[in-house]
Please model this.
Amino acid sequence: MDLYCTRPGCPGPLNRIDIDEEQLRSIPQIHCRSCQMPLILAGAYLPIKPLGQGGFGATYLAIDRYLPNMEYCVVKHFRPEGMNEQEVLMAKRLFSREATVLQKVGNDHDCIPDLYAYFPLEVPKLHYPNQTQEHFYLVQEYIDGEDLEHELRRLGPFDETKIIELLKALLPILDFVHGRNIIHRDIKPANIMRHRQGKIYLLDFGAVRDVLATSKWTTVGTTGYAAPEQYHGGEVYPSTDLYGLGVTCLRLLTGLPPEDLYDAYNGTWQWRDKVRISPHLSGILDRMVRLVVPERFQRAQEVLDQLNQLPRQVQLPPSSKPLRPPPQPTPPVEPPVSSLSPPPRSVSSPLLVLGQIFFMAAAIGLWVVAAVVHLAAPVGVSLLLGMLLGGWVWFWGRTWLRVSWLAGVWLASFMVLAWVLPGLNWRLGLGSLMLGLVTVGMVTLVEWLRQSLR
Model:
């Protein structure tokens, strides 16, 4: 199996270990071949795959060797290399805060990952073996899914329906978190995970702030998604998270990064001309991303109340991808009708079916009597057969294809056939039957192609 070294700067982090499951459960420790960093963390967790890297640490997919099925978990590692003492202290506080919050809310809400463990690890430095360095690890529940930033890149911009579903899934989570006096402060697509079964999770509480805390924090958040009050290191509020959620929705709707949507000169968000959504939802998103705190929604429940007032009859567009300016309105075009289209309302389906059966049965029956039984059809019978076929062609064309001139086309073809076929015997009846079927089939195909190419 593969085990990954979590030490920053390790020259060979991938370690291929030839060991069976029984040995894996009993061995005391395994060390990295390149830097001698312990690979079994806290005696239980084995990183097997890197998932991502951020400003303060890295994230790994790991297994817990003491669980019956060696189930997956996520190991987050605080990486102190390259930081000064003040940055290290701040990052340690953030990391510790995330563990505290996950313990406080994760186990009480099924859409926030549970905390499994939080521990330090002291090891020799990479190039200075006589000096030690402290690393910090946090182990939490693994969510088998994809964050919304990757989903956006894979599937493209969201439509209005998906945005409404996202808001209705995420706002109750924020309402719960805010009810515990906690502000997330880093709402963005990368911190929202969709499970393979569709459930939405809120991740990465490393930037959270307990509103009861008295200490001032250095600005933490993601550029573009962070509310203006965060940049000034001031107080944060539940509306601060709603601002980040609003920007997240704009990112997912347009597919564009926040810096391409925000007009810094005028201090406004320019996004409405890039999507097509209902005015009601547009108003909700505009209010969520107001720059002035009192002008925003103050609580997540207020946004939910507005979403529940969305008109039920609103016609959602088929796509919310960036659009060109809408063209001038054109007169409505009658929807195309193919040979499989339902009959007009004036003609009921049972009558249409009975008419088809009658004409086809009469035409085929007469042909069988005239051409097969007697082997020679008088001219009168052939003409009667032709008239019945003409009526059937006209009925088909008028009710199904809505082509009133179809009978005329068949009549002209029938006259040519009568002139070409010598003797006007049973061959006229057989020819008229085949001609009727071929005429209907060809015109049906032409009409279908014409309507499809519109």
Observations:
- The first helix runs from residue 21 to 26.
